[in-house]
């Protein structure tokens, strides 16, 4: 019996990276998955991967910054499987730079995807969760939203916003038995990390700096993040709400930051 057997989950940003890993894990734990991602090809490929394992999944190509597209995606999920009682918002982009180096366009884009996307998705699903008697919402934040990281001003701001949003929602919907938590991964071996590293003047040195900054001597894996999300999505986490779970191998406690 899986942790979320026969539950219905909506995962945004499910076509790639951490979102994909979470979708695969929740499906393995028995959930029916709606995969929402603006990358329609990646979204469908992940769906096929889940279906080939005799699990139920539905591709929902959509842009989380569009209320109309999010609404339509949720409707399609409800029609196929029923209303979701698990939502994981992982859709995110990561422009680099200080405030001075960040264009207004990049600033608006990162807040639209990372924060507005969470708002639009939750706004559609919360009424369904209330009618169903409860649910679990997990917002994918980042350790950069807690401690910050040089050269990631806009991204760090959005992740701090998600941590605060989860706390506010946890209070707003506690009486409806809707649990809301955030997860803050540290440095994870993911496509987003790879993209950041390749933008640096010395990618090899940057990767070594990231590994060296970890107490365990290595960055985390997508699977390690998905393990935590699966727990939070399950009834085993029935008393966990309003929490921000750091999944960083103790790096934020150690306090070191990679020198970029």
Strand content: 5-15%
Assign the structural class, choosing from mainly alpha, mainly beta, alpha/beta, alpha+beta, or little secondary structure.
Answer: alpha/beta
What low-confidence regions span 5 or more consecutive residues with pLDDT below 50? none
Q: What would the principal axes of the Cα set say about the shape? A: globular
Mean pLDDT, all residues: 93
Rounded radius of gyration (Å): 17 Å
Helix content: 40-55%
Number of helices: 9
Strand order of the largest sheet: 3-2-1-4-5-6-7
Helix and strand string, N-terminal first? EHEHEHEHEHEHHHEH
Cα separation of the termini:
45 Å
Oligomeric state of this protein: single chain
What does the largest sheet look like?
7 strands, parallel
Would you write up a description of this structure?
- It is a single chain.
- The chain is α/β, with parallel strands linked by helices and 260 residues long.
- The protein is 47% helix and 15% strand.
- The protein is built from 9 helices and 7 strands.
- It has helices at residues 17-28, 40-51, 67-80, 104-132, 153-172, 191-198, 203-212, 222-233, 251-254; strands at residues 8-12, 32-37, 57-61, 86-89, 135-140, 178-185, 244-247.
- The protein has a 7-stranded parallel β-sheet with strand order 3-2-1-4-5-6-7, sandwiched between helices.
- β1 (8-12), α1 and β2 form a beta-alpha-beta unit.
- α4 (104-132) packs parallel to α5 (153-172).
- It is globular.
- The mean pLDDT is 93.
């Amino acid at each position: 019996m899986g942790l979320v057997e026969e539950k219905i989950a909506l995962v945004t940003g499910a076509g790639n990276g951490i979102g994909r890993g979470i979708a695969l894990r929740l499906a393995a734990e028995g959930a029916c998955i709606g995969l929402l991602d603006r990358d329609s090809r990646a979204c469908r490929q992940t769906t096929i991967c889940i279906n080939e394992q005799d699990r139920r999944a539905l591709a929902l190509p959509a842009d989380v910054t569009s209320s109309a597209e999010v609404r339509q995606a949720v409707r399609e999920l409800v029609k196929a499987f029923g209303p979701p009682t698990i939502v994981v918002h992982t859709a995110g982009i990561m422009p680099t730079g200080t405030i001075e180096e960040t264009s207004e366009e990049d600033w608006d884009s990162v807040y639209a995807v990372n924060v507005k996307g969470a708002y639009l998705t939750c706004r559609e699903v919360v009424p369904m969760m209330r009618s169903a008697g409860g649910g679990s919402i997990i917002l994918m934040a980042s350790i950069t939203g807690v401690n910050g990281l040089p050269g990631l001003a806009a991204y760090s701001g959005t992740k701090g916003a998600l941590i605060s949003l989860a706390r506010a929602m946890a209070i707003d919907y506690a009486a409806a038995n809707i649990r809301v938590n955030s997860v803050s991964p540290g440095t994870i071996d993911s496509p987003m990390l790879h993209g950041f590293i390749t933008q640096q003047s010395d990618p090899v040195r940057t990767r070594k700096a990231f590994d060296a900054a970890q107490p365990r001597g290595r960055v985390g894996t997508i699977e390690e993040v998905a393990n935590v999300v699966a727990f939070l999505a399950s009834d085993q986490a029935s008393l966990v709400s309003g929490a921000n779970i750091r999944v960083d191998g103790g790096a934020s406690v150690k306090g070191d930051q990679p020198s970029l």
